[in-house]
């Protein structure tokens, strides 16, 4: 399975510029300390929201139920053996945020 992995910065709120299938995006990762969970957003490079405030749920295709021509044509998600994604799980390599192009499997 071919997947493109992205670093989640060790910050409570961050934007990262990435290239997915030759198109630039901003990925936003936000840690909510009250709820003890990560949230995700994907934006244009001009910081126009495409999707925002999505809970990071392990092993679930985050953009599956959304239709927007600006979204990458594949699956964005969190890959981990954990039941929930903790604050340090990306830093400690227990979780990976990745993109899988359509046709590559799950």
| Rg from Cα | 13 Å
Question: Number of helical runs?
Answer: 0
Question: What's the domain count?
Answer: 1
Spans of at least 5 consecutive residues whose pLDDT stays below 50 are: none
Please write the string of helix (H) and strand (E) elements.
EEEEEEE
| Secondary-structure class | mainly beta
Mean pLDDT: 93
Helix content: under 10%
Shape: globular
Biggest sheet descriptor: 4 strands, antiparallel
- Rounded to the nearest angstrom, the distance between the terminal CA atoms is 8 Å
Number of strands: 7
Biggest sheet strand order reads 2-3-4-5
Strand content: over 45%
Tell me about this structure.
With 106 residues, this protein is an all-beta fold. The protein has one domain (4-101). The chain has no helices and 7 strands. The protein has a 4-stranded antiparallel sheet, with no helix packed on it. Strands 1-7-6 form a 3-stranded antiparallel sheet, with no helix packed on it. The model has no long low-confidence stretch (mean pLDDT 93).
Give a brief rundown of this model.
With 106 residues, the chain is an all-beta fold. Helix content is 0%, strand content 46%. It contains no helices and seven strands.
Key features?
mainly beta; globular; 0% helix; 106 residues; 46% strand
Write the layout of secondary structure elements.
Elements: E1 4-6, E2 13-20, E3 23-32, E4 37-43, E5 49-55, E6 74-80, E7 95-101
Antiparallel strand pairs: 1-7, 2-3, 3-4, 4-5, 6-7
